[in-house]
Amino acid sequence: MCGIMGYYCFSGKRPQKDKISDMFSLLQSRGTDASGFAFIKEDGGLFVHKAPIRSSEMVKTKEWKDLSLPEIMILHTRMKTQGTEKNNANNHPLFSKNGYAIVHNGIVYNDKEIIGKRNRDAEVDSEAILALISARTKGDNIKKLFDKIEGSFAVGVVSSSQPDNLILIKKDNPIQLYYNSQDDIFYFSSEREIMQESLEIKSETKRGFNMGEGSYHFYEMENNHALILNTDGVESYKRYYPKRNSWWDRGFVYKSDEDESEMIVECPWCFQQTHYYDGKLSNKCEQCGMEIDEEDLYNVI
User: Fold this and answer.
1) Full 3-state SS string of 91-116
2) Helix (H) or strand (E) holding 50
3) What is residue 90's DSSP assignment?
4) Which CATH superfamily groups domain 3-239?
5) Residue 185's Cα: distance from chain center in Å?
6) Which of 23, 126, 244, 262 could anchor a disulfide with 150, C-beta 3.0 to 4.6 Å?
7) pTM confidence score
8) Predicted local confidence at residue 25, as pLDDT
9) Alpha carbon separation from 2 to 135, 145, 206, 293 (Å, rounded)
């Protein structure tokens, strides 16, 4: 599990930096091994900064304190699953030589298949997503993600080739959205509660009737969709149809163990493989320690 977040300013107004700092710090509940952020500079170049420190420490660094918030930004907190955080190339945002940067929450099973024999800059499965989304080939690169990636992803993308665009892509992992109509700023995060707390979003009532959350309007990205924003707002919101099987279609490995069936399954909480014993009253993930119920295996958020 990792955390992604970011924002898009449609007018000249920027978010309050202390609120973005709070949001970034709260996001470390989804990963404390590393943190980072990326944006397109005014000169059109890509800026990426990341380090193997938690985000609550990142916001205390000179790099963050000296930063004037840009128009568009993507941020990430990492819980390592593949590749040490000591190699900063494994930390997010990942970026390409042609000016793409991504933040990813999820897991890719077939990264070696996708990347092939080319030299890898890092050891993380997210490189497969970066390779596909930044490829200079004909066709819809987002569609290629849904066609080729076997796994789950919630992805944020910025690029120097399209400096006015923010792309969000969701397959089986959460992306929550808020739009502040007063400030004309769009926010996204892995968790709604993180935005509510940091932006001080509160429900309003009148005579006992729910009046919403003031100037903030909440949306949840639908699964298997991609959202592209530009300076005018929503450029496109499109549904895709994955060709690769979902994780629950990958198949179970059964072994005989007296009266119990031993299965290798993917934990619905941390997305790592673990043993599951059908018939046991309690099963816990060997990686994250969360308890797994049978119904969890078929209802992944």
Assistant:
1) CCCEECCCCEEEEEEEEECCHHHHHC
2) strand 46-51
3) G
4) Aminohydrolase, N-terminal nucleophile (Ntn) domain (3.60.20.10)
5) 19
6) 244
7) 0.81
8) 98
9) 24, 19, 38, 22
Q: What is the pLDDT of residues 90-146, one digit of tens each?
A: 999 999 999 999 999 999 999 988 887 667 778 999 999 999 999 988 889 999 999
Q: Provide the pLDDT confidence category of residue 293 given band limits of 50, 70 and 90.
A: confident
**Helices marked H in the chain:** 17-26, 55-58, 62-65, 111-115, 127-133, 141-148, 192-198
Going 239 to 241 to 242 to 248, the CA torsion angle's sign is positive
Which amino acid type is present at position 161?
A: S
Residue 52's nearest CA partner among 81, 83, 17, 88 is 88
Q: Please state the domain extents for the chain.
A: 3-239, 247-298
In this structure, which amino acid lies at residue 138?
K
Q: Is 105 exposed, middle or buried (0-12, 13-18, 19+ CB in 10 A)?
A: buried
